[in-house]
Design a protein that fits this description.
Blueprint lengths: L2 H12 L10 H16 L3 H13 L8 H12 L4 H13 L7 H12 L4 H13 L7 H11 L5 H12 L3 H30 L1
């Protein structure tokens, strides 16, 4: 994944309010000051946003990967999904840190278990490549299937590569895991809907 695609993905998962084209630098500064104030008070969304701004040098904030990591780590302590994913990317690509696929996988696993499809796909790819996680095509197949394999060519290629290396029994096991996951997710969703009706 290129830096540009990674940056676009981070921006899309932030779901931050957009700053209109006509925003003045004064308005931008006031907005960033508000985000910073909330981040300093412990708001994980603001911490993740501020980390993002430092990560990509956005909205009048200078690019500073160490400050990005600092703010992401504060948000990560509160299990913020965007911060977890961003830290996974920093360690996967070596943005301001040494490349460490094991740490990257740990962050992706935490957010993947929260249901983030992008992190689930990353876990599948890392399992398939044996980077930071044991090479395990059954797990690769599982994570890629639940994360969605039709999002891009790289993900699809990883899925096809993993599947081509699997036996019929391994494919059956992976599909069983996917079905089990989907059934558990549906039960969880149904119990949430039932409890919200009460």
């Amino acid at each position: 994944m290129t830096l540009a695609r990674y940056t676009l993905f981070i921006a899309s998962i932030l779901m931050m309010p957009s700053i209109a084209e006509e925003t003045t630098s004064k308005e931008e500064k006031e907005y960033i000051d508000g985000v910073r104030l909330n981040a300093e008070k412990g708001d994980s969304n603001s911490q993740a946003k501020l980390g993002y701004y430092y990560h990509v040098g956005k909205s009048g904030v200078s690019l500073d990967l160490q400050k990005a990591k600092y703010w992401y780590e504060l948000a990560e302590k509160q299990n913020h999904p965007m911060a977890l994913y961003a830290l996974g990317g920093m360690f996967e690509f070596g943005h301001g840190v040494e490349v460490d696929f094991k740490k990257s996988a740990e962050y992706y696993l935490r957010v993947g278990e929260q249901g983030a499809p992008a992190a689930q796909r990353k876990l599948g790819i890392l399992h398939h490549l044996g980077q930071g996680l044991p090479k395990d095509n059954v797990r690769a197949y599982f994570w890629l299937m639940i994360g969605g394999i039709d999002n891009d060519k790289f993900t699809r290629d990883a899925f096809d590569g993993a599947k081509s290396e699997m036996t019929v029994d391994e494919i059956s096991e992976a599909e069983r895991l996917v079905q089990q996951f989907e059934q558990e997710s549906n039960k969880s969703l149904q119990s949430t809907e039932t409890s919200s009706v009460d």
